[in-house]
Amino acid sequence: MKIDGSKMRGKRNIIILKFGGTSVGDADRIKKVADKIISASLEANRVVAVVSAMGDTTDKLVDLAGEVSSGPSRREMDMLLSTGERVSGALLAMAIQEKGYDCISLTGGQAGIVTDEGYSNAKILYIKTDRILKELKKGRIVIIAGFQGINLRGDITTLGRGGSDTTAVAIASALNAKYCEIYTDVEGVYSTDPNVVCGAVKLDAISYDEMLELASCGAKVLHLRAVEFAKKHNVVLHIRSSFNDIEGTWVMDNYKKDNRMERPVITGVTYDVGEVKVSIFGLEDKPGIAADLFGRLAKENINVDLIVQNVSEKNFAVISFTVRNENVPLAEKVLSKIENVRVEIDSDIAKVSIIGAGMQTHPGVAAKMFKILAEKEINIEMISTSPIRISCVIKRGEIKEAVKTLHSGFGLSR
Ligand code: ASP
Ligand code: MG
Q1: Cα–Cα separations (whole angstroms), residue 153 to 75, 115, 142, 144
Q2: Is 147 in the pocket of ligand 1 (CB under 6 A)?
Q3: Residue nearest to atom 6 of ligand 1 (CA)
Q4: β-pairing, 46-51 with 141-145?
């Protein structure tokens, strides 16, 4: 795909490459990644690579902590978990040096990533880029341990699980890099899950908002926070496979100008089987009831997704909403404290969503979605929308058929 050159104007001739845990899973893979970084450094002027911990190292470290402590302190957890990325970073630097290239690995703190105090889910405050720039100027390839920084007390912090993506995007923004390539175990972002629909197509490019909707609807290619960061700071992303050289998916705004052909109104179909439906019967229909109900859930940090309230009968209302599977026990506890209501939990549900920036200018997309589902006799239990997304809750057993039929119905299949 030809990408719009104006997006790159005013940017430094630096590119950021990020490699996930699978890509650096063992010594052989690390050597292959070293080759990729070297060839990128021969093409582009300067290269900075950000790495995740090898394979499932972070999970193993979490387990290990559990073996010595029932409630490890968050500071020590960050000390522990941050080591995974230091291991892969140092090994990668050695592999590059072995091939005769000058290279240095840095921890997040050494790279100048300063975060707030929040251990285990720290936010980046700023990045002091002097050290990285100094190393690049010496002609070195710079490797940065992802997922971590240092707080103003000088303690190591981590950015939350999956946080290496955020490191990469933040570094790209701070260095004003041309773009940030995310190397992963898939070839890019697909119009739907290729494991469900064999006609799924890899997308050349999508906007930040589409990527955000895809990510929050269950397409786990990129850390949500990284996409938000990229959108806010206009960092051009390229999501691609670390196992081949095929072009992946570009994430940027206004990419449509570069494409001669008109794109379909819908960009992708996603699904999510990680939620359950909670219904509360017998709620008094008066002002303040919803505020009270959802206030109680919010206080326990329970995220609520779709909400439906029916028409009240005899001044009693039914409110249904969805929550993540893992929040059910806590939600049940919170709801059991509300008097005179009946709570029903239905885990036999799934959410199917269609996403596309094009629906903002094309009316009738929702009607078309409902019609496609109706033709397959699929019943819709709940509906929610955003400017570029329509989601329907249906029976879990029908989810695959729904995804397939919507994907082909909207003309996305190959
Ligand atoms: N290693 C960390 C994790 O597994 C960070 C990352 O991979 O992005 O969550
Ligand atoms: Mg990851």
Answers
A1: 12, 10, 25, 21
A2: yes
A3: 162
A4: parallel
pLDDT one-digit tens code per residue, 123-143: 999 999 999 999 999 999 999
Q: From ligand 1's centre to the CA of 117, what distance in Å?
A: 19
Start-end of H helices in 283-355:
289-299, 328-335
Phi, psi of 376 (to 5 degrees): -95, 10
Geometric angle at alpha carbon 195, from 387 and 23, rounded to 5°: 95
| pLDDT tens per residue, range 200-255 | 999 999 999 999 988 776 667 788 889 999 999 999 999 999 888 999 999 998 76
Q: Please give the torsion angle defined by the CA atoms of residues 298, 303, 308 and 312, in that order, rounded to the nearest 10 degrees.
A: -20
Q: Is the CB of 163 under 6 A from ligand 1?
A: yes
According to DSSP, the β-strands at 141-145 and 124-127 are unpaired
Residue 131: HSE in the Cβ half-sphere, 13 Å Cα cutoff: 16
Tell me which of 161, 166, 183, 223 to substitute to probe ligand 1's pocket, judged by most ligand atoms within 8 Å of the beta carbon: 161
- In terms of CATH, what superfamily is 11-185? Acetylglutamate kinase-like (3.40.1160.10)
Would you state the structure tokens that stand for residue 250, as one six-digit string?
Answer: 């570009």
pTM as predicted? 0.85
Centre of ligand 2 to C-alpha 325, Å, is 22
